[in-house]
Amino acid sequence: MHLITVIEIIAILVGAFSGFIEARRKRMDVVGVFTVAFIAAFGGGTLRDILLDKRPLFWVIHEEYAILIFVLALVATPVIRTLRQIVSERLIVIADAVGLGLFSVAGVSSALDAHMPLFTASMMGVITGIFGGVMRDIVCNEVPMVFRDGKPYAICAFLGNWMFLLLGMNGFPHDFALWSSATFIVVFRLVTWKFDFRVGR
Amino acid sequence: MHLITVIEIIAILVGAFSGFIEARRKRMDVVGVFTVAFIAAFGGGTLRDILLDKRPLFWVIHEEYAILIFVLALVATPVIRTLRQIVSERLIVIADAVGLGLFSVAGVSSALDAHMPLFTASMMGVITGIFGGVMRDIVCNEVPMVFRDGKPYAICAFLGNWMFLLLGMNGFPHDFALWSSATFIVVFRLVTWKFDFRVGR
Amino acid sequence: MHLITVIEIIAILVGAFSGFIEARRKRMDVVGVFTVAFIAAFGGGTLRDILLDKRPLFWVIHEEYAILIFVLALVATPVIRTLRQIVSERLIVIADAVGLGLFSVAGVSSALDAHMPLFTASMMGVITGIFGGVMRDIVCNEVPMVFRDGKPYAICAFLGNWMFLLLGMNGFPHDFALWSSATFIVVFRLVTWKFDFRVGR
Q1: What residues does the Glycine transporter domain cover (chains A, B, C) (predicted)?
Q2: Interface test with B, best of A33, A34, A35 (most B CBs within 10 A)
């Protein structure tokens, strides 16, 4: 299995896991738990693909990921309990940051393929990274967390996306631009999380 | 008028009616009542078609159904009162179950036409059957009922959709597969409703 | 700069401004303020284009408008304060009415280009005019204002859209139909606002 596949699966599972937690907090049944986890995991990329008019969607091509979330949702209660015992909050934040870095930059790349202009492409990357969580919170009848906690989550993605765009415009190889920008997002996110940095309202 | 057209109209009216009730409960005006009824009736199929990138949408082809809801919304208050007097809750549940059966299996069929893989096709059927109600509840600022009441509504659709897929894969004629699966969903839904069966959280 | 460009920019700014206010009221951070303003300004046209399957989206073609909202969101607090001092509520209502007139009729025209039937085209115009505000309110976890205040906002757009359709069907030139219908919407909206007219629930 390629490294990128492993990262992808872990990042999707972290997204789904955030949906499990939120759906349980709202006392949802198994249908709600699965749907909210699915939206949290795939919502951002799906919205990006609808805006770009790209098909087939990621979770149609990789149906195995959707099935994995389906199976986990059937046993969400023990899954949540087990994960909370064996995985620290720190590990979840790290896995989530890796997912944010990877999916944001991949979103920008996908928007460039669809001939989007630069600012739009940078936004498509942010949408990919954050709108899963936004839709999860809307379905759970909450004001989206990423819009109100003041933590530079979307901002990390936005800056890293521009690093990717600028490296590409200045002739750096695509792979180098992608990996260094994704790494930048991960590190920036973890540093601001570590020091509990907030943006002013 | 074909039987299927009659069933279609009744099922759409039941969806719209659920929107009338919910919008009124939230003290919406006529614009809200119409919009929520429209979303409740057509939202699931519209989301499916957007995900599958199919056009024209159902309510564009059958504009007469949209106009019917528009006219009913103008007189929603007497419509609700009259329906409540002449139609029992039992009849509404039956009509809704028939709609769930018909639209879910039709949604799977539509996804197969668009070359979706099996699990995705089964999900597209469930989305067709339940997301009208999900969007209705989101617009009305509620946690979607279908995600929290523990009643096997989406589950009936899911199992019936797989019955349709398995019958088709095993060489049964399309029409037999469609009607028997839709019937299965209707019966399963009504039996679980009758005995107030709940899935564990 | 053409008159229509000036009107367009002002109408978009009024939409974004309504997002600034609502996001601030919900104590959102800068990411939320930008996103809600963006959705309020472009959400209606984006939904219409997704339903019609039209690309590229308005805010991709006119990326400069998205960047303008981005820059304003960074300084939203002084922008709101300044605007509240120099611009009266009356002026904001007028600018918003002009935007409603322009974008509604433009939405109908866009739907006709996509070969939509008449009722659907009139609805697409209303969606263009009101769904930015609807989505803004949903993200802010409120029942959409336009569905519950009883003010004939969507109704003005709906009637003006039919005026546009009827003028076109009766052979009037496209430009005359467009401008007279947009003007009708603006005047009707301002008159009903002035006299605080409400539709019955």
Answers
A1: 6-76, 94-167
A2: A35
The predicted pLDDT at position B87 comes to: 82
Q: Do C199 and B29 touch (CB under 8 A)?
A: yes
User: How many angstroms away from the CA of B6 is the closest CA of chain A?
Assistant: 30
Low-confidence residues of chain B: pLDDT under 50: none
Closest CA to B36 of B133, B175, B177: B133
pLDDT band at A201 (very low <50, low <70, confident <90, very high): low
Place of tokens 């499990």: A20
Q: What domain count does chain B have?
A: 1
How far does the CA of residue A132 sit from the closest CA of chain C (Å)?
Answer: 13
Residue C48, domain extent: 3-194
The verdict on a CB contact (< 8 Å) between A154 and C59 is no
Chain C residues within an 8 Å CB radius of B135: none
Identify the band that residue C92 occupies on the pLDDT scale cut at 50, 70 and 90: confident
pLDDT at C1: 67
**Does residue A44 lie in a domain region?**
yes
Does residue A200 sit within a domain? Answer: no
The residue among A30, A48, A35 whose CA lies nearest residue A136 is A35
Residue where the block lists tokens 């469609």: B178
Chain C interface residues facing chain B, Cβ-Cβ under 8 Å? 50-53, 116-117, 119-120, 123, 134, 138, 141-144, 146-150, 153-155, 199-201
Separation of alpha carbons B112 and B131, rounded Å: 19
With contact defined as beta carbons under 8 Å apart, do C72 and C79 qualify?
Answer: yes
What tokens were used for C195? 């006299």
pLDDT, mean of residues A22-36: 94
In a domain, A88, yes or no: yes
**Cβ neighbours of A199 in C, within 8 Å:** 29-31
Q: Is residue A199 part of a domain?
A: no
Asked whether the predicted pLDDT for residue C56 surpasses 60, the reply is yes
Question: Which of C49, C54, C122, C123 should we substitute to test contact with B (largest number of B Cβ atoms within 10 Å)?
Answer: C123
* Neighbour count for residue A78 (Cβ, 10 Å): 9
* Exposure string over B111-147, b if 16+ CB within 10 A, otherwise e: bbebebbbbbbbbbbbbbbbbbbbbbbbbbeebbbbb
Return d(Cα C16, Cα C66) in angstroms, integer. Answer: 10
